[in-house]
Amino acid sequence: MGAMLLAETSPFDTVAGLPVHPLVVHAAVVLLPLAALLLVALIAVRRWRAALGVPTLLALAGGTAAAFVAAESGEALAARVGVPGEHERWGSLTPGFAAALLVVAAGWYLLQRRDARAAGPATLPTRVGAGLVVLLAVTVTGLTVLAGHSGAVAVWGARLA
Length: 161
Prior knowledge:
2 strands; two-stranded antiparallel ribbon; mainly alpha
């Protein structure tokens, strides 16, 4: 009863009579891996950083926000249709790792800009930040793929079998 009451009063439940979750999840599934890939490219290709750095961070911020909304709206949807098991496990991990990637990527971006202004080589903190960005980018991409795939299987697997 309490979970159903939450679902009925939550802004994450429905919009225009449709569940919010499948509407917003696509933003996370597209933006997070795209931003992660672009971050790795920015680390590898220095000349792209000035033009693509801020847009990449903005895409990552949008994807992170979408991941949080997807997680909240997923809980509201689960209160209506049942818990999707594996999908919920992967989906609940994704927003936290996406937020960590956003913080580390913003820090790395600021550090590498400072290094570029000094016209010297990348400092140790910048190199460590780049390594953390790559590690988190791979993690976030993997979690996003696992959450998205398990969600698609939960929705479509039995219907297409």
